[in-house]
Amino acid sequence: MSSTLYWHRHDLRLGDNPALSFAVEQGAVQPVFILDTTNDNPWPYGAASKWWLHHSLESLQESYKKAGVALLLLAGDPVKILPKLLRDTKATCVVWNRRYDAYGIAQDKFLKESLPAEVKSFNGNLLLEPWQIKTKTGENYKVFTPFWRALSAQSISIDPLAGTPHQIKPFSPPPEGLNLNDLDLRPTKPDWAKSFEPHWTIGETEAQQKLDKFLDNTVIAYKDGRDFPAQDDTSRLSPHLAFGEISPRQIWYATQAQLSAHKKNAAYTTNADHFLREVAWREFAYHLLYQYPDTPTEPLYPKFKAMKWKKSKKHWDSWTKGQTGYPIVDAGMRQLWQTGYMHNRVRMIVASFLIKDLMIAWQDGATWFWDTLVDADLANNTLGWQWTAGCGADASPYYRIFNPGLQSAKFDKNGDYIRTYVPELAKLPAKYIHEPWKAPPLILKEAGVILGKDYPEPIIDHATARDYALQAFKELV
Fold first, then answer.
1. Phi, psi dihedrals of residue 455, rounded to the nearest 5°
2. Catalytically annotated residue among 385, 387, 403, 435
3. Contacts with 421 (C-beta within 8 Å, 6 or more apart), sequence order
4. Residue 161 pLDDT > 60, yes or no?
5. Residues 30, 91 contacting (CB under 8 angstroms)
6. Catalytic residue at 319?
7. CA-CA distance, 253 to 240, in Å (whole number)?
8. Is 385 a catalytic residue?
């Protein structure tokens, strides 16, 4: 029987894990997670992601302990660590689930060619590989709707839980590694992530329970409710997906099973189908990242490189701190600070404001999200920001510029979301909470709000900024 090293990356789970399942079938298994600390990695974990990673690894350690094996934790350069680990353990095989970013692909390719052992890789993170879905002419999809139709036509009906290993044979003796705290993933002085803790339970078990609860209850209101940030009508699975605590196949399979059980319920079918479209949107993002590896930093369409962005530190600081004077924008940025998360509708609003009101480069916003979101995902993050900037696949047209006041009034009508995260405006009536600068002085006084003191005046006039942005983008297209 062989002994196999299983290298974890964005797949911190035991269920529906083809690399792990293969390793268990071969014999003894040593699962290992290596924190890549090299300077070569252009996208190391952001600060919020590190906090999540700590707790995700903690949960994974417990899962492996129950299965009879210890998760090995190491830090450094995987290119140097893996060959040494092979020599020390005399393992005969190395397995992993594939990555799709340029850095990950290059590193995996090098290791596959250079490691002195058998190497096998698997699809553990997508419904289908990027090379498995093409247009009829063999081109890459750049528009989501036809991609969705092509994906929907594929058969993705396996039972992903069938291969969950409950007993794993360990290496003897097991190699020595680091303690979880040695990875130094959590902030300490100050512990700015302490406010995250009430909002999240982390790990594979929680991800499965959250999916079950969503499909049993919440999904019935998903299609429309997902746009309202004060409502709890989303799955909140995005960080679990980003770290691979749950796979898209598990979500797809479970949703299809519920659709079959509720096939006579038109409302359930409509909402669950819309949820699957969002799973497919993530899939679309990964296919684009694989096919167009420069898009995390470069626009998909080169003509947008000529955009003359502004570099106002004052405006940037106001945006990052949630002090723009536009309540829906500020609520979103403060939700991000307090929870490591932001509602998807609000992500679009704050991104549009940064790009098309403040004329600050989308790459700067994408980098900020990468560092501050617990669900930071390179493919999703890239697609979302390029969509808003109008420079990516299936992008929002350049002339679509969100009016923060109108968006707020439409999707947070009573101001409940704003009151939660911008408490200094809590006593303003709903009529004025979206645009407090329009409130009469008496109303502001009764609400205890002095603009410019308790809450900032708008840092920019939206109408003027909109006209400027329209002209700037029009010159490019």
1. -150, 140
2. 385
3. 322, 330, 331, 332, 334, 335, 338
4. no
5. yes
6. no
7. 16
8. yes
